UniProtKB/TrEMBL annotation:
Organism from which the protein derives: Streptomyces sp. SID7499
UniProtKB keywords: Hydrolase
Origin: domain of life: Bacteria
Entry keyword DNA-binding: no
A GO term for molecular function: hydrolase activity
Protein name (database record): Amidohydrolase
InterPro entries in the cross-refs: Metal_Hydrolase
Length: 77
């Protein structure tokens, strides 16, 4: 039951990695597709990513990798 309840975690971690890695800045026409039935985590994840970007941009060199809030790159998709 625990594993089934947390099945979205891998997709969320993957999306956060793409948003913060700078890959979508370097390749602006790259399209990502996440296909699953439990997509309710996306609005929360985007809001959280933007908050982290705004408050803690210096962490891990993010300031140099992504000049705009992470949700910007999601919505360009």
């Amino acid at each position: 039951a625990v594993q089934a309840s947390l099945s979205f975690n891998n997709a969320m971690a993957s999306m956060m990695d793409f948003l913060f890695s700078g890959v979508l800045v370097k390749f602006p026409t790259l399209k990502l597709a996440y296909s699953e039935g439990q997509m309710g985590w996306i609005p929360y994840a985007l809001e959280r990513a933007d908050d982290v970007w705004e408050e803690h941009r210096a962490w891990g060199g993010v300031r140099d990798l992504i000049p705009e809030p992470p949700s910007t790159y999601y919505y360009r998709q």
